[in-house]
Amino acid sequence: MLPQHLLKKLIRTALAEDIGAGDVTTAAALRGDETGCARATAKEELVVAGIDVFGEVFLMHDPALKFTRRLGDGEKAGKGDLLAEVSGRLASILTAERVALNLLQRMCGIATLTRRYVERVEGTRAKILDTRKTAPGLRFLDKYAVRAGGGCNHRFALYDGILIKDNHILAAGGIAPAVRRVRARIPHTLKIEVEVKNLPELEEALAAGADAIMLDNMDIAGMAAAVKRAGGKVPLEASGNMTLERVREAAETGVDLISVGALTHSAPAADISLNLVQTEDRPQ
After folding, report:
1. Is the dihedral of CA 174, 154, 14, 40 positive or negative?
2. Same domain, 138 and 247
3. Contact (CB, 8 A) for 115 and 149
4. Which one of 205, 212, 239, 278 is most buried, by most CB atoms within 10 A?
5. Is the pTM value of this prediction over 0.90?
6. Residue span of the structural domain in which 222 resides
7. Residues annotated as catalytic (active site), given as ranges
8. Measured between alpha carbons, how far is 191 from 229 in angstroms, rounded to an integer?
9. Is there a single domain that holds both residue 88 and residue 178?
10. CATH number of residue 44's parent domain
11. How far apart are CA 87 and CA 68, in angstroms?
């Protein structure tokens, strides 16, 4: 479920940014009382995500509009498939459409790319994870879209998970002192993940008592060796340069998790159109 207070705040801000003092084009071109229907249609194959976010934009702008979902989040849509319909006052539809489409296209793009990664590693133990490389202010939508695509979420933010990265290790004076200090200061409910770049660092992290280990930018041979050395003692996460071409090979090394920053920072927006299909009262 999406946090409704965050969603409504985001939509209010986005609408205010786009509309400002008013939609001058719509106000000048229409009388204001025209009514009709618009349909959101997939112009390419995609995985749906954010369909109710799309609808909420219209309803927050004009509660008198009617929104009808035709496909749900996580469902696949083919080219030409109907995703949703919005009906009512045309001026309201035209004013809110860009914000609604921007959010829907971004979320569907993320879900679609995520599904490709998930399908690429089918039959292995590896789960596909997102990262914190999200658009500021849109993280809760980006991560929701990853779940709609069949992926899993890494920590949401800095406050809900320990990940000791290379700069933490350098600042703390090494893996062992970093883990020791963190362990002494956090509640027992938090696990400690440590980023390593090679097998000697993996050995240090295991000896320090890391609960999980991230293999950062290791080659395939290094990942396989790390899996063998860890022997299932802790979960191993592969990260760095995880392309669609490389992810299957990485998964076959036996790692438990594969994090892919591209899911949220490089997913192309899905191609979706919103077109009027009828007007009950055409402007004169």
Report:
1. positive
2. yes
3. yes
4. 205
5. yes
6. 119-265
7. 98, 133, 165, 195, 216
8. 21
9. no
10. 3.90.1170.20
11. 9
